[in-house]
Amino acid sequence: MITYTVLIAPKAKEQMAQLPKEIQQRIYEKLVLAQENPFHYFIRLKGRTDHKLRAGNYRVAADIKQNERIIEITKAGHRRTFYD
Predict the structure, then answer these.
(1) Looking at residue 2, what is its pLDDT?
(2) Contacts 24+ apart (CB under 8 A), 13-18
(3) Band of the pLDDT at 60, cuts 50, 70, 90?
C-alpha cells in the first residue's frame, strides 16, 4: 500500500501546540490513518484548493499533493476562528 508523508508547517505546529492535549492526540491518530487514504478523512473546502480534517470542534487544513504523496498541514484551530 502506498502511503502519504505528513508534513507540518511551522505555523501549524505552533497552532497545534496550543490545542488541548486530547485534541492533539485525536488529530495525530486521524493523520496516521489518513496516510493510506487521505481523501477518506479530508474534505475539500469550497472555493479553495486545500482540504480540512475534522476533530470534534477543531479543524486542520492541509494541501494534499497527490503526485508527491504528501499531506502538508498548513493550519489548525477551533472551528469558530478556523475559517477567518
Answers:
(1) 78
(2) 15/75, 15/76, 15/77, 16/60, 16/73, 16/76
(3) very high
> What's the pTM?
0.89
Helices 21-34 and 10-17: crossing angle in degrees, nearest 10, is 140
The grid coordinates listed for 12 are 501549524
Write down the domain spans for the chain: 5-82
Give start and end residues of each alpha helix (H) in the chain: 10-17, 21-34, 38-41, 79-82
Average pLDDT of the residues in 27-38: 94
- State the fold for domain 5-82: YaeB-like fold (3.30.2310)
